[in-house]
Automatic annotation (TrEMBL):
Provenance organism: Octopus bimaculoides
Subcellular location: Nucleus
InterPro entries (alphabetical): Znf_C2H2-type (IPR050758), Znf_C2H2_sf (IPR036236), Znf_C2H2_type (IPR013087)
Family: Belongs to the krueppel C2H2-type zinc-finger protein family.
Stretch forming the signal peptide: none
Major localisation: nucleus
One Pfam family of this chain: zf-C2H2
Protein name per Swiss-Prot or TrEMBL: C2H2-type domain-containing protein
Domain C2H2-type: from-to ranges: 37-64, 65-92, 93-120, 121-148, 149-176, 177-204, 205-232
Annotated GO CC locations: nucleus
Matching PANTHER family: RIKEN CDNA 6720489N17 GENE-RELATED, ZNF44 PROTEIN
Keywords, alphabetical: DNA-binding, Metal-binding, Nucleus, Repeat, Transcription, Transcription regulation, Zinc, Zinc-finger
């Protein structure tokens, strides 16, 4: 049989442990006794020595796991495991909404945001939101003016790697966009779209002075000079 005093003492102890202050103190005690592993290079801490060991490879550049098919090297075995799916075509992760499959779970997570319209990454400057973090990183360059990608031929700089890739095609003379109507080829998709207006007789550019329409923006600009010269 428990005495009334014993029951009161137990209730008091229970309240102390599960109160916010008591629980916080207990957690602090556990954390203070937990052993942490520190990176001597950058100071980052890890709860497991194995995680620290893997992290140090970021600084040393060590990549001890090579792909036996293409020879690409990786710093951790799990990255090599995911990379192999490029060669095998394995896509074990599938969207339960549309059925599309993916080789990595993170790609599936990002894809599902198309269906949910979730955009968890917000620009702290203008408030615009994005579904993936790298889209936010590219967007920030609009505000900062950063252009980290440069052409080694003409030194022109770009904010996105894709823009640099398209630019390089101009130097190389690569024209990969073909017009189905006349077989004319272009180095940029936007140039092909503008060209096709000739075939469909679409003239979206209108002169604000005489209402004449044109299929190309640069032709409209040339036309407007006629009006401007007449004013001189």
């Amino acid at each position: 049989m428990h005495s009334e005093q014993e029951d009161n003492d137990k209730n008091k102890l229970h309240n102390e442990i599960f109160s916010s202050d008591g629980l916080a103190s207990k957690e602090k005690s556990i954390l203070s006794k937990k052993k942490w592993f520190h990176c001597e290079i950058c100071g980052k801490t890890f709860s497991r020595n194995n995680d620290l060991f893997k992290h140090v490879r970021v600084h040393t550049g060590e990549k001890p796991y090579p792909c036996e098919i293409c020879g690409k090297n990786f710093s951790v075995n799990s990255s090599l495991f995911r990379h192999r799916r490029i060669h095998t075509g394995e896509k074990p992760y599938f969207c339960d909404i549309c059925g599309k499959t993916f080789s990595q779970n993170i790609h599936l997570v990002r894809h599902k945001r198309i269906h949910t319209h979730e955009k968890p990454y917000q620009c702290e400057i203008c408030g615009k939101s994005f579904s993936v973090d790298n889209s936010l990183s590219r967007h920030r360059r609009i505000h900062t003016g950063e252009k980290p990608y440069f052409c080694e031929i003409c030194d022109k700089t770009f904010s996105q790697n894709g823009h640099l890739t398209r630019h390089r095609k101009m130097h190389a003379g690569v024209k990969s966009f073909n017009c189905k109507d006349c077989s004319k080829v272009f180095s940029r998709k936007s140039s092909l779209i503008e060209h096709r207006w000739i075939h469909i007789n679409n003239k979206p550019y209108q002169c604000q002075i005489c209402d004449k329409t044109f299929s190309h923006k640069n032709v409209l600009a040339f036309h407007e000079r006629i009006h401007n010269e007449g004013k001189l």
